[in-house]
Amino acid sequence: MNILLVGSGAREHAIAKAIKRSKKPTNIFCFASNNNPGIKELSSNYKIGKITDTKTIADFAKDNNIDFAIIGPEAPLEAGVVDKLKEQNIPSIGPTKKLAQLETSKSFTRNLLRKYNIPGGPKYKYFSDINGVKEFIDSLGGNYVVKADGLMGGKGVKVSGDHLQSIADGIAFCEELIAQDGTFLIEEKLIGQEFSLLSFSDGNNLAHMIAIQDHKRAFVNDTGPNTGGMGSYSDSDHKLPFLTNTDIEQAHKINQATIKAIKDEFNEEYKGIIYGGFMATKNGVNLIEYNARFGDPECMNILSLLESDFVELCLAIIKGNLTQDHARFAKKASVCKYAVPIGYPDNPIKNKIIDVSAVENKELIHYASVDMKENELYETGSRTIAIVSVSDSISDAELIAESEIKKIKGPLFHREDIGTEELIEKRIKMMADLRK
Ligand code: AMP
Ligand code: GLY
User: Which of 132, 161, 257, 310 lies at a 20 to 30 A Cα distance from 370?
Assistant: First the structure.
């Protein structure tokens, strides 16, 4: 089988490893944005280009007799790469541009959920100017979130009490978005614990993945600026220690109802991954946002634990006969930690040599934003290397990840607290207090 992989971060490195573990003989053709030595080693052909250049990607696919494509990041979905491949009769794991609005337009998703009576949405209102903004914020008791409507690379959301210290701050951010010609949503601020619950979808049937918690803030104890995600963990029972079975069931139901709503709305099947970013609150599970792809770092936890054959799973999505049995996971815990350049995310140092030779288990390495020049590995200013470990408990997995990530040499840092008992106890206590 010839498989096209679009993207070249740690998420795509995890995908490439999962493809290569399949019983089916495969050739990977990677259309990459950077020189990732981990993916390159697993690929038959590795081409660097603009991952939003749909025509070049479709030509690359045709030239290489691709059987199907897997799209890693959101930018090529938004650019319509799945639509372009479809014109060549090449199926993809990833939705068409129209269906990817689930991620690319926050108002689209909120309106879809409202129209189809899907529970779990906070109060919200859509704005394209400042009229009524203050009144709506007041009606939420000053607990609110401002969200730019489109993709903003994680910079489009500001939360009261967190980034916005007063109503005047909130209005100023809205004015900023209006000046950029942007439309935005104001939402009720949800209080609780965030978790990710992703499902594979063939358009009708879902196969759910394990629950995972990501860590968005740059520094220990959830301080510092927001990042793409500094690391993540999952537990051996596939639910997180602060979640109930009902929370998991609610998240499954919301994902299932959304896929059905998409089909009813567009008469088109959503094939790929639906990634729910949820908040467990005292009143049950709420949806914060949807993504139309694997999470990064969540993908590393998920695929490190996947016991079933990933290529068979992709084929079931394409054929439309997906069952939960296609996505079976080891009853183990996992911890993923990212090493990132000093100064990340605001002022990262760039193009410094890093050295992974001291890492004992090289299988745990997932390369992200790196470059390889004259046999030297360089960081390129963003999340650099993810270490992912699997063990019987979260604490055991954390010890392994921590000891290995420390062996990477170079001007990098990571969050020592991800997956530690101390941090997890805090999450459990927070939820227990809320539910009282
Ligand atoms: P998003 O880009 O929608 O994932 O938002 C980024 C982050 O903002 C989320 O991971 C949450 O931490 C926070 N956030 C977004 N919406 C809400 C909300 N309604 N209530 C509380 N926090 C939110
Ligand atoms: N885990 C955050 C993201 O993939 O968007």
Answer: 310
In the reported structure, the alpha carbon of residue 385 is separated from the centroid of ligand 1 by a whole-number distance in angstroms of 25
Could you count the other beta carbons within 10 Å of the beta carbon of residue 154? 13
Convert the pLDDT of each residue in 318-346 to its tens digit. 999 999 999 999 999 999 999 999 999 99
Distance CA 9, CA 384 (A): 9
- Tell me which residues of the chain have a pLDDT lower than 50: none
pLDDT score, position 153: 67
CA-proximal residue: ligand 1, atom 5 (nearest) = 157
- Residue 87 Cα distances to 52, 66, 222, angstroms: 16, 13, 45
CA atoms of 151 and 8, how far apart (whole Å)? 20
Torsion of CA 344, 350, 353, 359, to 10 degrees: 20
Residue the block writes with tokens 């996992």: 334
The ligand 1 atom at the shortest distance from the C-alpha of residue 152 is 2
Cα of 157 from ligand 1 centre, angstroms: 7
Report which protein residue has its CA nearest ligand 2's atom 4: 295
Question: What domains can you pick out in the chain, each with its CATH number?
Answer: 2-100 (3.40.50.20), 123-188 (3.30.1490.20), 193-423 (3.30.470.20)
Which amino acid type is present at position 69? A
Q: Are 291 and 275 in contact (CB under 8 A)?
A: yes
For the segment 22-45, what is each residue's pLDDT rounded down to a tens digit? 999 999 999 999 999 999 999 999
